[in-house]
């Protein structure tokens, strides 16, 4: 007789969990491709599980693998629920009121001012070095040192303003990429877990298929010898 190639449809807890996840209403998200890929993977997994009788999986490796698949499925469902909740909560996040155009203009002005002060500071330092070698230029040396120190303080002040503007620019990105841009990472992790679930389910089907074929051949072989 031919080896049996299909298994009874009995999905139990695993399919119940998956059907609950797939029946959830997809929240409005800027990354519509994630929702599409997620559902496609769910459909593939459901189709694969339709070939498995989860209530009659052989003990040993197949049973352990099934337990792992069920755990992955549960984790995917939990992560997906969290992802959807985060998407829905995006509208409640505070909006930044900083003007990027104004910040860029101010940064350009400060950078130009910094270059000018830096040139003055370098010139003052050259005079300090020069007057150090002339004992009769103590007055000019003291003035050069004062000018250098003054310019150094101006540079420190300008650098602090630039750093503050850059920090605010970083904060402004939170409006464009909420949750520190964690949602795309979470989406990718969920899709990768789905791919692993599909892979291990295929492995499970192969193990059950081989086990079923071995058992069938042995049974019918002994029967035909009677």
Q: How are the SSEs placed, and which strands pair?
A:
Elements lengths: L11 H11 L9 H18 L11 H29 L10 H33 L5 H39 L1 H47 L2
Helix pairs in contact: 1-3, 2-6, 3-6, 4-5, 5-6
* Average pLDDT over all residues: 78
Quaternary: single chain
* N- to C-terminal distance: 16 Å
Number of strands: 0
Number of helices: 6
The percent range for helix content is: over 70%
Main features:
single chain, 226 residues, mainly alpha, elongated, disordered N terminus, signal
Structure report:
This protein is an all-alpha fold and 226 residues long. Among the domains are: 59-93 and 178-209; 108-166. 78% of the residues lie in helices and 0% in strands. The chain is built from 6 helices and no strands. The chain has helices at residues 12-22, 32-49, 61-89, 100-132, 138-176, 178-224. The radius of gyration is 34 Å and the shape is elongated.
Précis, in short:
This protein has 226 residues and is an all-alpha fold.
């Amino acid at each position: 007789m031919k080896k049996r190639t299909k298994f009874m449809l009995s999905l139990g807890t695993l399919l119940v969990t998956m059907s609950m996840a797939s029946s959830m209403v997809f929240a409005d998200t800027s990354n519509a491709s994630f929702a599409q890929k997620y559902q496609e993977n769910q459909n593939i997994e459901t189709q694969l599980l339709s070939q498995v009788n989860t209530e009659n999986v052989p003990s040993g490796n197949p049973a352990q693998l099934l337990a792992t698949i069920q755990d992955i499925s549960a984790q995917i469902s939990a992560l997906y629920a969290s992802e959807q909740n985060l998407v829905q909560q995006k509208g409640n996040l505070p909006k930044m009121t900083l003007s990027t155009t104004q910040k860029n203009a101010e940064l350009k002005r400060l950078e130009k001012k910094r270059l000018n002060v830096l040139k003055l500071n370098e010139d003052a330092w050259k005079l300090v070095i020069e007057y150090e070698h002339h004992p009769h230029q103590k007055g000019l040396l003291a003035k050069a040192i004062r000018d250098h120190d003054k310019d150094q303080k101006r540079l420190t002040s300008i650098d602090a303003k630039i750093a503050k503007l850059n920090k605010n620019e970083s904060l402004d990105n939170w409006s464009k990429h909420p949750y520190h841009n964690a949602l795309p990472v979470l989406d990718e992790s969920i899709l990768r877990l789905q791919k692993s679930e599909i892979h291990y389910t295929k492995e499970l089907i192969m193990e059950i298929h081989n086990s079923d074929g071995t058992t069938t051949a042995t049974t019918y072989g002994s029967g035909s010898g009677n």
